[in-house]
Design a protein that fits this description.
- This protein has helices at about 1-10, 10-35, 40-90, 95-115, 125-130, 135-140, 145-170, 175-195, 200-225, 245-255, and strands at about 40, 195.
- It is mostly helical and about 260 residues long.
- It has one domain.
- Strands 1-2 form a two-stranded parallel ribbon.
- α2 crosses α8 (about 175-195) and α3 (about 40-90) packs parallel to α10 (about 245-255).
C-alpha cells in the first residue's frame, strides 16, 4: 500500500525524466557537433520567467475546477444513499414489493455511476436509469406522503446536476489557446537551451536538465489537473478519489 502511494506520488516525475534525459542527450550532441549557435543573454531568462508565469495562470485556473471536483463523488454518494434510505423506509410498509424493486434499481444505478466515471457506462444511459425512477415515484403516491416523494425528487435532481457538472469538467479543456502557447513556448525554450553556449559546459548540463524538468513537469501537471476524472486514461496520475462511491456500494452490498 505504501509502495503504491509512493509510486502514485512520483508517477508524473517518472514520465518527465525520460524527456529530460533526451534533452540532455541532445545538448551533448549539439556541443560535440558544434551546433551551439546561440549566446546566452538576459532575454532568455526573461522568456523562462514569462513561461513560468503563464503556467502559473493556467494552474490557478484548473485548480479551481479540481478542488470543486473533489467534492462531487462524495455529494453524489450522499444523494444516492439518501434515496436508498427513503425507499428502504417504504419497503417496510404494507406493500413493499414496488419499493423493493426500486431498491434493486438504485443499487444498479449506484454501480452504473461508478462505472460511468471510468467511461464504461454512457452518459445518456445513466440519465435513462435516473429518469426511470419517475415510474417508481409515481407508484409510491398511494403509500407515501407528498413531502416524502418531494425529498426523493430533490435527491434525483441533485444527482442529475452533479452528473452534468462532472461531464462538463471531463469533456471541456481550460483555455485551450493558453495550452497551445505554453506548449509552443516550452518546446522553443528547450530547443534554445540545447543550442545555447553556456560555460562551463558540464555545469550547463545540470541547469539545462533542471530548467527543462521544471517546464515539462508543470505543463504535464496542468494537463493532469485539467481533467480530474481521467480514470480511463493510461498513466493518469492525479484522479479525484472515488472512495465515497466505492464505500457506498460496499454498504449497499452488506445490507
Amino acid at each position: 500500500m505504501i509502495a503504491k502511494k509512493i509510486l502514485g506520488k512520483y508517477s508524473l516525475t517518472v514520465k518527465v525524466v525520460p524527456l529530460v534525459l533526451l534533452i540532455i542527450g541532445l545538448k551533448l550532441a549539439a556541443h560535440w557537433c558544434g551546433y551551439e549557435i546561440l549566446s546566452l543573454n538576459p532575454l532568455f531568462s526573461g522568456l523562462v520567467a514569462a513561461n513560468v508565469f503563464l503556467m502559473g495562470f493556467l494552474i490557478s485556473g484548473v485548480l479551481t475546477d479540481y478542488k470543486e471536483s473533489e467534492k462531487l463523488p462524495g455529494e453524489m454518494a450522499g444523494s444516492l444513499e439518501s434515496l436508498l434510505d427513503e425507499v428502504g423506509i417504504l419497503a417496510k410498509s404494507d406493500k413493499p414489493s414496488r419499493a423493493n424493486e426500486c431498491l434493486v434499481h438504485l443499487r444498479g444505478l449506484s454501480a452504473a455511476v461508478l462505472s460511468w466515471f471510468s467511461k464504461q457506462e454512457k452518459t445518456r444511459d445513466l440519465f435513462d436509469r435516473l429518469s426511470a425512477l419517475n415510474d417508481f415515484f409515481y407508484s409510491f403516491e398511494p403509500i407515501a406522503q407528498a413531502n416524502f416523494i418531494a425529498r426523493m425528487k430533490q435527491e434525483q435532481g441533485n444527482i442529475r446536476r452533479l452528473i452534468i457538472r462532472v461531464h462538463t469538467i471531463r469533456e471541456t479543456s481550460f483555455v485551450s489557446s493558453g495550452y497551445a502557447i505554453a506548449e509552443i513556448t516550452t518546446v522553443l525554450l528547450c530547443c534554445g537551451l540545447i543550442l545555447s553556449k553556456i560555460d562551463p559546459f558540464y555545469e550547463s548540463l545540470f541547469f539545462v536538465g533542471l530548467i527543462s524538468f521544471l517546464l515539462i513537469f508543470m505543463l504535464m501537471l496542468i494537463k493532469d489537473l485539467d481533467n480530474p476524472f481521467g480514470y480511463y486514461e493510461d498513466g493518469y496520475s492525479d484522479p479525484v478519489s472515488l472512495h465515497p462511491l466505492e464505500d457506498l456500494l460496499r454498504r449497499v452490498g452488506n445490507r
